[in-house]
Amino acid sequence: MSTELTPALTLSREDIVRLSERIEGAQTGAHAIPKLTDEYPAMTVADGYAVQAELRRRRLARGNRLIGWKVGLTSKAKMLQMGVDVPSIGFLTSDMARPENSAISTGDMVHPRVECEVAFVTRAPLAGPGCTREQVLAATDYVLPAVEVIDSRFSGFKFDLSSVIADNGSAARFVGGGRARLPQDIDLRTLGVVLEKNGEIVAAGASAAVLGHPAEAVAMLVNILAEQGETLPAGSFVMSGGITEAIPVKAGDCVIARFQELGDVSMRFVA
Ligand code: OOG
Ligand code: MG
User: Fold this and answer.
1) Backbone phi, then psi, for 220, in 5-degree steps?
2) Distance from the CA of 106 to the center of ligand 1, in angstroms?
3) Cα 122 to the chain's mean position, in Å?
4) What is the CA radius of gyration of the chain?
5) From the CB of 73, is ligand 1 less than 6 Å away?
6) 271 CA distance to ligand 2 middle (Å)
7) Which tens digit of pLDDT belongs to each residue from 154-184?
8) Residue with the nearest Cα to atom 8 of ligand 1?
9) Domains by residue range for the chain, with CATH
10) 70 falls in which pLDDT band (50, 70, 90)?
11) Does ligand 1 have an atom closer than 6 angstroms to the CB of 160?
């Protein structure tokens, strides 16, 4: 699996700004747009990250705080579901956080889906290249269970790697909860998770589905950040990627992710 940012940029600065405005418009208007590669077939991964960086700059300029990062497409189930087999990263800001047990509105999203993820909170800075799982575990304050609500801004939830990176990895909302645990107190590979929607089990898996060990995904994130000249500061919240395939949700749905060792994370969706 290569995450190298080659070939380099093909988009002009004007294109990057225009595409970030287009994605931002789709986000705020909750309407789908064609994937970016329909118009820019030569768009590269580096172009995608340039659009994402501009989206982040604009989000922070509006007063939102950077809380951390997400890694996506880190499990076989997710890669198969989306037809993209290279992990990608996206940023998480304060406006995307939702409390556990809360009502999450679907009216301001296009076609939301939920994913069960192991989240990490760091207590020391991490920098790549060459960041390892061991370094991630040593820098981890605690782990906790999380549900990510993803919402591709692209029609039919269909995209390629460059487009989904530009769209901030479909990031929309996230809920952390359950029980925080020290990483050394549990086996982070064998954590089971059961996802229930309206009382029925709709997905189940184990944490090793995420690159063999979810801390591996955090190391990959740090190394992708390094390719962009960035590091992961202490106190970051990082979601390591969906363990199972993502499940669509609509207004009226109740979702509970039940994690072994880490407890439950629940939410309901309203119009
Ligand atoms: C891309 C984001 C994937 C994950 O956990 O794998 C992701 C998508 O599937 O829309 O967040
Ligand atoms: Mg995810």
Assistant:
1) -60, -40
2) 18
3) 17
4) 17
5) yes
6) 22
7) 999 999 999 999 999 999 999 999 999 999 9
8) 170
9) 13-270 (3.90.850.10)
10) very high
11) no
d(CA 112, CA 239): 17
- Residues 3, 11: contact at Cβ < 8 Å? no
- State whether the beta carbon of 244 lies less than 6 angstroms from ligand 1: no
Give the Cβ contact number of residue 9 at 10 Å: 15
Q: Which residues contact 254 (CB under 8 A, 6 or more apart)?
A: 197, 198, 199, 266, 267, 268, 269
152 in ligand 1 pocket by Cβ < 6 Å? yes
Q: Which atom of ligand 1 is nearest to the CA of 164?
A: 1
**Strand positions, DSSP E, the chain:** 66-72, 88-93, 103-105, 113-122, 140-150, 171-176, 192-197, 200-206, 237-239, 247-248, 254-259, 263-270
The arithmetic mean of pLDDT across residues 1-25, rounded, is 84
Name the amino acid, one letter, at 55: L
Which of 157, 158, 170 gets mutated to test ligand 1 (max ligand atoms within 8 A of its CB)? 170
Q: In angstroms, rounded to a whole number, what is the distance separating the alpha carbons of residues 250 and 248? A: 7
Helix (H) or strand (E) holding 138: helix 133-139
Q: Is 148 close to ligand 1, i.e. is its CB under 6 Å away?
A: yes
Instruction: Provide the angle, in degrees to the nearest 10, between the axes of the packed helices 45-61 and 13-29.
Output: 60
Q: Is the CB of 255 under 6 A from ligand 1?
A: no
